[in-house]
Amino acid sequence: MSILTILTLPDKRLKTVAKPVEEFDESLKLLADDMLETMYAAPGIGLAATQVDQHIQLVVIDVSEDNSEPLVLVNPRIVEKNGIQKHEEGCLSVPGIYASVKRAEHVKVSYQNVIGESQELEAEGLLAVCIQHELDHLKGIVFLDHLSVLKKKLALKKLEKVAT
Ligand code: K2U
Ligand code: ZN
User: Fold this and answer.
1) Which among 50, 139, 160, 164 is least buried, having the fewest CB atoms inside 10 angstroms?
2) How many folded domains does the chain comprise?
3) Is 134 among the catalytic positions?
């Protein structure tokens, strides 16, 4: 297993739209394992393949207190969402920047597991936030893109300072 390099803004590769996974082979399993190890080491509770410069529809998530409940979502898509919640978000690709983002309170996600079996998951609260945050990454979207023009500008300016 390996710790992978996480892309950070302003890297344009974070804007790449990920392609569907078609081959459920050993390399997919290895990438998912490396992403989980990278996420736990960060530490984080989610990581999208886009963030490690692998532009396929794959995310890993673990919102448990003791890193005991890893989720590997392949070709995930939200099939139902309702309610609204606001949550302070950060991002491993936007170090040191935090902002409140509005998202759906409850989501139903359809996805495949790492061996290609179709699955469905319902989530609310922090898990729902994390799922929406990670699926945004697969569309080339970071949480700053949900902010007002002014708030995003201020955040990017702060990011520049944090980076220098
Ligand atoms: O995509 C990422 O960078 C992973 C995020 C996922 C996330 C962001 C906001 C809210 C929920 C999940 C990282 O895990 S950010 C670090 C973090 C760590 C613990 C709790 C919340 C956020
Ligand atoms: Zn993120």
Assistant:
1) 164
2) 1
3) yes
Q: Which residue among 37, 88, 134, 160 is the active-site one?
A: 134
Q: Of 6, 5, 16, 8, which is closest to residue 156 (Cα–Cα)?
A: 8
Q: Taking Cα atoms as reference points, which of 81, 56, 55, 75 lies closest to residue 119? A: 75
One-letter amino acid for residue 83 of the chain: G
36, two tokens: 């989980």
Q: Pick from 1, 93, 112: which is nearest to 49 by CA? A: 93
Best residue among 45, 101, 126 to mutate for probing ligand 1, ranked by most atoms within 8 Å of CB: 45
pLDDT of residue 33: 98
pTM of the model: 0.96
Q: Terminal CA-to-CA distance of the chain, rounded, Å?
A: 31
